[in-house]
Amino acid sequence: MTISRRFWVVICCALPVRYSRPVVRVGRESWTSAVVRNADWEARTMKIYIHWDMEGVSGLMIREQTWYWEDVVRPEVARKGLELITADANAAAQAAPDAGADEVIVCDAHHGGGNILLDKALKDSRVTWHGRSRGEGNGKPRWMPGLDETVDGLMLPGHHAKAGTPNAFLPHTWQLEWEDFQINGMSVGEIGIETCYAGYWDIPLILVQGDEVGCKEAEEQFPGVVTAAVKQPVDHDTCSGLEAEAGRSLTCEKVKEAIGILRTDPPDSFKPDLPMTARIRMKTELGADLACQREGVQQVDFKTVEKQLDRQCDVVKWIVDAGIE
Question: What is the pTM of this model?
Fold first, then answer.
């Protein structure tokens, strides 16, 4: 996810967030109802969306391999990071069809994208690659291209813990200026933001891959999600853990497990009650002042801003213009 110095706002609400089971989809039959009625699986299709960040990638153990735009980074170390995410993405993209997915969409989101080496990407007619986190849908610009009501499950590999999480590897939430992001009073990180966005279409989060701390965050906030903890934080900038191949093997096992659960007992989608309050506590007063220049953004205190939203898919659109029209 982008780590630029632009300023964002957090999501918060006075009411607790509610989870709703995705039993009915607009224009489609749900997996749950299909299981209940013993539907003909041969006549159905499953589409999986895999949205890649980079901090949680297998074998990637140091800051320099993932925040490679920083001044002190050695080119050969940066290149190694790109090779690691490409290998992980290929492995997961293959594991999903092997587990029964008919269509897989892979989106490269870290720092806006451009990390997965597309010339080395898996060539499979069932897999669609998006090299950037922003693209087009129906001729209009949008975030997470290809994510819509036809998708059955969301996977978030390569992810990390939210801003302010102690003893985590490179914890942050979208912008380094963001100190805390809330949705209807629930503090979330990028995992929660992206899961909320998918919830607009009743798409459940089914898998998270990353360090142990990021995976624990996902498990606590989204019951039923399958996690692949491929490493353990040593300090803010370093990790230890499985060798890259072992991490990929574990991740592939978990991808297959998640798809199996999606078929038989899918987890709830994350669909906060509307109107939804998004709130962000900034690190600086300047960050809050800049955010308040955006339409409809209210200042809560010197460092905190919020906005009322009418759609889950606007979870960050109000602050960074990432969403749908």
Answer: 0.87
